[in-house]
From TrEMBL:
Biased composition (Pro residues): 136-147, 162-175
Gene3D superfamilies: 2.40.50.120, Spermadhesin, CUB domain
Record localization: Cytoplasmic vesicle, Secretory vesicle; Secreted
Primary location class: cytoplasm
UniProt keyword Secreted, yes or no: yes
Segments forming domain CUB: 10-124
Classification via PANTHER family: OVOCHYMASE-RELATED, PROCOLLAGEN C-ENDOPEPTIDASE ENHANCER 1
Positions of the UniProt region annotated as Disordered: 1-25, 126-185
Identification of the protein by name: Procollagen C-endopeptidase enhancer 1
InterPro entries for the chain: CUB_dom (IPR000859), Netrin_domain (IPR001134), Netrin_module_non-TIMP (IPR018933), Sperma_CUB_dom_sf (IPR035914), TIMP-like_OB-fold (IPR008993)
Gene it is expressed from: PCOLCE
Domain NTR intervals: 191-309
Keywords, ordered alphabetically: Cytoplasmic vesicle, Disulfide bond, Repeat, Secreted
Length: 315
């Protein structure tokens, strides 16, 4: 029988369809120094796990070097399958497992401690989650985020609108040097805590400066909360003023992503990318319509690309 306040071991194998994981001493006092906990969550066959964070307070560090929570797809701490490593006092976004297992590891070093965290998990039907739309995926590393200023993270267009107002026609299709009104906002973008996409493939197609599918080859950090994604182009459905070599297929394109968790791009995955263009080049605002590419979508996008993007009444 371990004394509750000296509990150096925590974690375990969790096979119930739902439950809670929390740091030792939560919520009465800080977690102890020098501990390591591993929770191996296993959902019933055919289910996936949704992990949702409650209060979160783990010693802050830009790279989460000292105390941190790591989450891995599957049952092993394999860096190639790490979803994220978290610290600071901002709760991570919910995490959905790819299969039926997740591993959550918590490590504290021998110095500063903090309140800790509590999280809940639940086994879900993959279909139920698919109907809700793709879940926001956790960023690779979440440093403490400074409070955003008053600047609004809005580009010149709002992809959330199903149709542009008559006074602002969409950019002319395939014009080599269109006058683009969309600009990367000056000053820091306020990155949302939860990624939200609005509309459909159709409503976002004409609201975007370019639409293409591509495979992510590399994601590099910086500046701030942003990343730069290098994408190998598969198919271009709407190029706008995007300067791409011919043939498009296989061309390498660098995209600025000011909020690395919205949209979050994983190396090796293929996506439909609907983004904006400005003088600095192509970029993906946090509300961009970006989804993992599935072959049936190719025909839908091909059909959309044959229509002219002019404002038209939509019921």
């Amino acid at each position: 029988h371990l004394d509750h306040h000296n509990q150096q071991f925590c974690g375990g194998r969790l096979e119930k369809p739902q439950g809670t994981i929390k740091t030792p001493n939560w919520p009465e006092s800080d977690y102890p120094a020098g501990i390591s906990c591993s929770w191996h969550i296993i959902a019933p066959l055919g289910k996936v796990i949704e992990l949702t964070w409650g209060k979160f307070d783990v010693e802050a560090d830009t790279y989460c070097r000292y105390d941190y929570v790591s989450v891995f797809q599957g049952g092993q701490s394999d860096d190639a399958r790490r979803v994220g490593r978290f610290c600071g006092d901002t709760s991570p976004v919910p995490i959905i497992s790819e299969g039926r297992e997740l591993l959550v590891q918590f490590v504290s070093d021998l110095s500063v401690t903090a309140d800790g965290f509590a999280a809940t998990y639940a086994a879900r039907d993959p279909e139920e989650l698919a109907e809700r739309g793709p879940s926001p995926v956790a960023p690779p590393l979440l440093p403490p985020v400074p409070k955003p200023g008053t600047s609004k993270g809005k580009g010149g267009k709002d992809p959330g609108k199903a149709k542009p107002p008559p006074t602002a026609p969409a950019p002319p299709p395939l014009s080599p040097e269109g006058q683009l009104t969309s600009t990367v906002p000056t000053g820091p973008i306020a990155c949302p805590k939860t990624c939200r996409r609005t509309g459909t493939l159709q409503s976002n197609f004409c609201a975007s400066d370019f639409v293409l599918t591509g495979t992510v080859k590399a994601v590099t950090r910086g500046p701030g909360e942003g990343v730069t994604a290098t994408v190998a182009v598969v198919t271009v459905y709407q190029a706008g003023a995007l300067a791409l070599p011919q043939p498009h297929k296989g061309a390498s394109l660098r995209l600025a992503v000011p909020c690395r968790q919205c949209p979050q791009l994983k190396k090796g995955a293929s996506y439909i990318l609907m983004g904006q263009l400005d003088t600095g080049g192509p970029w993906l605002p946090p509300e961009s319509f970006v989804v993992q590419f599935r072959p049936p979508q190719h025909q839908v996008l091909t059909n959309l690309s044959k229509r002219s993007c002019l404002p038209r009444p939509q019921g």
